[in-house]
Amino acid sequence: MSHKIAVIAGDGIGTEVMPEGLRVLEAAAERFNIALSFEHFDFASCDYYLEHGQMLPDDWFDILSKFDAIYYGAVGWPDKVPDHISLWGSILQFRRAFDQYINLRPCRLIPGIKSPLADREPGDIDFYVVRENTEGEYSSVGGRMFEGTEREVVIQDTVMTRTGIDRVLKYAFELAAKRPRRKLTSATKSNGISITMPYWDERVKAMATNYPDVTVDQYHIDILTANFVMHPDWFDVVVASNLFGDILSDLGPACTGTIGVAPSANINPEGRFPSMFEPVHGSAPDIAGKGIANPIGQIWSGAMMLEHLGFEDAGKAIVEAIENVLKEGPEQAPLTPDLKGKGDTQALGKAIAEALSAG
Ligand code: NAD
Ligand code: IPM
Ligand code: MN
């Protein structure tokens, strides 16, 4: 039986890193004898919007529901389509409609990459951000009133549900319980956001009683961002609301050298709907078209996809191939400029695919 993957490259560097992600997935499929079939879609991109006046075809839900997973590049091109239209019309829509309530974002300093934080070595930074992915600050509840007048009012509510919080906390606690350090950090802001965030803290406390072996701490998001920089070694599993998780999952990878390597898995743990795998980064208009985007975030996301589909060995082998190429350093390996190298997107993708096939 072939595993069906919907491929959406999207915009900007999404179209450049996706072929490298697929190159490595094909190498993994061959080495591990996995049957994967890819179907490419041009929707959920700004060019599709310019042609059709909408980001998605009317039957997108039925089309994508039939796949085992969605492999996404990046979306957004603010000069063509306002970001809130392109993003709410694509990735944010998928996360909600397919109930991908977990956004799992590993963050690890890999040998061969220099952290911008002085004296940080591999091993010092190795944690997961578990981001709530379907509610919270990303809500469509609100409105704009008295537009254009001096009394103009704009409101956007945060929505937190007990079910929504508890399910992401449960996932994060389970993950922490499986890791050697068994530590969970909760991102909060209950000193200032006085209704939703105290509720979040309350649910963390309640969930913690089920996991006596997991050490729990919490920080307000302001000092937590500072601690990511000052003490990244404190963290193991960090659980956060939608917005806080978004911020932490760019900051964490930045501390590991570049956001270009960071992967993410948008997971519907029950498997009722397809899960979606995409790099953390966006379409990077500033470097798009130059062929220098780092493809590792896309490739590593492919590894997470294979693990999710049950091919743990293949996923691990891809990560090992990434590590083997990176540890050669920018003089030997064709690393991209964000890794201080002189290589390009394709050369780095090829090097990783070759390392995987050789392994
Ligand atoms: P971005 O992640 O696209 O870029 C931020 C910076 O990081 C840029 O300087 C860029 O060159 C660099 N960068 C990003 N990925 C890189 C890579 N693989 N290799 C090397 N350098 C890389 O964030 P942005 O500039 O805020 O957003 C650009 C567009 O992408 C916007 O439309 C935004 O809404 C969208 N976006 C989409 C996603 C997504 O599809 N999941 C995520 C973030 C932003
Ligand atoms: C991400 C992105 C998206 C988010 C944007 C593009 C809507 O930043 O996947 O991290 O905020 O979730
Ligand atoms: Mn983000």
TrEMBL record:
It comes from the Bacteria. Its cofactor is Mg(2+); Mn(2+). Keywords: Manganese, Metal-binding, NAD, Oxidoreductase. GO terms for molecular function: D-malate dehydrogenase (decarboxylating) (NAD+) activity; magnesium ion binding; NAD binding. InterPro entries: ICDH/IPMDH, IsoCit/isopropylmalate_DH_CS, IsoPropMal-DH-like_dom, TTC_DH. Gene3D superfamilies: Isopropylmalate Dehydrogenase. Residues 4-352 form the Isopropylmalate dehydrogenase-like domain. Its EC number is 1.1.1.83. It catalyses: (R)-malate + NAD(+) = pyruvate + CO2 + NADH. Belongs to the isocitrate and isopropylmalate dehydrogenases family. PANTHER family: D-MALATE DEHYDROGENASE [DECARBOXYLATING]. This is D-malate dehydrogenase (decarboxylating). The lineage of its organism: Bacteria, Pseudomonadati, Pseudomonadota, Gammaproteobacteria, Oceanospirillales.
